[in-house]
Amino acid sequence: MPVLLEASCHCKAVKYTLESNTPVPYMLCQCSICRKVGGYMGSVNIMGNTKTLKLIRGEDKIKKYNAVKSYDKDDKPKERYGSERAFCSECSSMLWCFDEQWADWIYPFASCIDKPDPLPPIPEGGTMRAIKRDSCPSHVPIPEGAKAYDDYGPGKGIEDWHKSTGAWVD
């Protein structure tokens, strides 16, 4: 049964809802992109159903960013990733990440979810994942109790949850 998530940016200029079958903030991405746009520790994303995204207000305030994959010798973007990160142009709050490769899913940043409050906890036996540590400096800590992976870790992510137990495959 999907959970309705209500979300907004910090200045409340952008507000949206979407449904999620997996509303648990279980993965902390610590790649270079998530740390730069999301903060020191990285970004925590939740998986939502793309077709259920409804903008309540602020479409004109949303800007999108395709992260740079490589730079030339003058630090000019040479190649960009296909995924786009939506953010508020007023307060810079990260809203969601979307990639056409996985068009059914949209990944709202847990930091912008207002309701439900609190979000459901990680199911018993589950573990927070700290991913993409291969592009993360050693001074960035791994949260206590989290499993760390240089890449994305086993499975396809939260969509690999085992339906009967509510735990993901590790």
TrEMBL record:
Picking any one GO molecular function of the record gives:
metal ion binding
Q: Which InterPro entries match?
A: CENP-V/GFA, Mss4-like_sf
* Coiled-coil regions, chain positions: none
Q: Name one Pfam family in it.
A: GFA
Top-level taxonomic group? Eukaryota
Database matches in SUPFAM superfamilies: Mss4-like (SSF51316)
Q: Please list the residue ranges annotated as the CENP-V/GFA domain.
A: 5-150
Q: Which family does it belong to?
A: Belongs to the Gfa family.
Q: What is this protein called?
A: CENP-V/GFA domain-containing protein
Q: What organism is listed for this UniProt entry?
A: Kwoniella europaea PYCC6329
